[in-house]
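Structure ticket #2291
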Amino acid sequence: MAAEKVLYETRGPVALITLNRPEVMNALDFERLDLLRAYLRRFGGDPALRAAILTGAGGRAFSSGADLRSAQDGREAGAPIRVTDEPDTD
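Resolution: structure written out below.
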């Protein structure tokens, strides 16, 4: 079973959101950005939650930023660059 791309859990009034891609220093591709956006909406819509902590898996980096290789691979394959409000559930 593949690991979750972004982890979300609550601990009392705190939401913990973890970028889970340590092999590439938690670089963000479009799918992970969509998931992150959805989890932040979940946090914002829950009145029991008071704080959100965003962290990265592994010990090397919180996030190295955008996954440029993934973006380039998508453009070369002709895939449109998309920004959506909801994660892809395919």
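Closing remark: The chain has two helices and three strands.
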